[in-house]
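Hi P.,

Sorry for the delay on this. The queue was packed all week, but I finally got your sequence through. Input first:
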Amino acid sequence: MVSPHGIKLAVHLISAYFGDIVSKVCECLLRKGTLSLQQVLRFTELNKENATNALLVLIQHNCVQAFSIEQQGGFMEQPKMVTHYMALHDNIIHLMRFSKFLAIISDEFGQECMEIFEGLLQHGRLSMNQIVDRYKDKHKSHTSEENSTAANVAHENFNKLAQAHYIERCPAREPYLESEKEDDTAGKKKIAKSKMNDPSQTLEARALAAATPMESIRFLVEADTFTNVAPDENTKKTSTTEIVGEKRKKNFLEPENKEILWRVNFEEFVRHFRHKCCITHVTRCMDNVAGIVLSAIFEATRRDETKVKMEKTVPLPMDRIYEEAIKREEGRSLSLERVRDSLLQLGCEVAIIGIDETYSIDLKKIIDEAQAQEVESVVLKKYGREAYRIFRLLLQSKRLCETDQGKLQRIATDFPLWAMYFIQLFIWMATFVDKKDALKILFQLWNDDMLHMERVANEGQKLESLCWKLIKVSVWEQVLDDMYHAALNLKLRLVHELEQAKQILRKGKSVGDKVLEKRKKVGEKWEVLDSSLMILDDAIMQFHDF
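Then the structure:
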């Protein structure tokens, strides 16, 4: 489920990039869930042409995934294939990270690769031939020799991006999902049963899995992708001819025109930012050596990570970690013992495989600590230092501490299920916060959905106490929604400042000092707002993508 302000931010981004009609269709899908075209028409009240074009734009820019599924007809009616559309909220939010993606490509590969990558960001999906033509036009290649040179350069840089997994083959445009009735073999029944028991295997999850190319060809650049040969007439006829009533069970990984389309691989960038977040956190909380060692491990295991949210790093032998660490200029002075000490400092698990000493680092713990620090910082800025101490106490504690040997022990005995809750009396004793102030802060945090409160009563002694608990999942969701809200406000403010800048520019260049001063102030505001948005987006990724 997407939070309310997460939807509003996504709708604003789509409106800014593609206009109001496309954003209306996108908002409908985000709020209503997966819909067919007829349902989209009914909810948006758009005509069929506008709705269809809007969906095609969203698919082209990887913001919507279509899939077809068999739908049972009415009485005496044959089943029919119906196309459904689902919005991809994560991909929509990535629209405001394009400048970050470009900076990574520029730093790692240079200007020429960045030009190819920029084309994919602008157009969503492109074939190899389209990428080459765009590169030729940009570099104004006129002669056949210049064209050939430009094409070779474009092809070489394209290969670099594919090998680094920064681009990938596009998913199938409209995969076909088989109904459960068609899974009649024993093996298919076992698979279907396992997916039914897995709560993550929703219809949308099945559609995304069906659309995703196999890992073996996902980043494969074949020789025939670089060709200018047009399909012949027989191919066109075959691709456009269908037998009426026959179900489509073809390979949806290949488009009908046999032309492979490519897009930006957002997962690789999320992995890059996740690694950066972990390195920054351990460097700040431990030392530079710990950051160097962790960076070396990430570099050594980059191709072995099977998913973005890896809870632990792939086990590596000590020699491999040390070899990777001393490749860096800042790590050349490190000794083997210093690297081993940093690994122990990182709290990594030591596993013995054969005679090799291997290490694996708990990344989930690092991310959890970074998230906790971020939330604590938010509480400190919003509610003050006393609220910060109370919140931190509730966040770090796992059980009921028996500070008051009388009241707390009686409640712990009478209400053993409340072992996870803090009694009001203990909170102000442990945090050195005045009793009245502590109660006021607790109620303020509870009112803002940062805490959960229950009243616990002892019937025999007519004793009632307020018990407080920090439910981490709900608090983290609330913080993320607040971040989406803040990002939306920053985007709206940036739009306002842009309008102000346009009004100043309309006055012409030959103006006085006052107008020049206004231009300077608007430029400074823009830089501050844009920088703040990028920092806030780092926090959003930390809570949602990592």
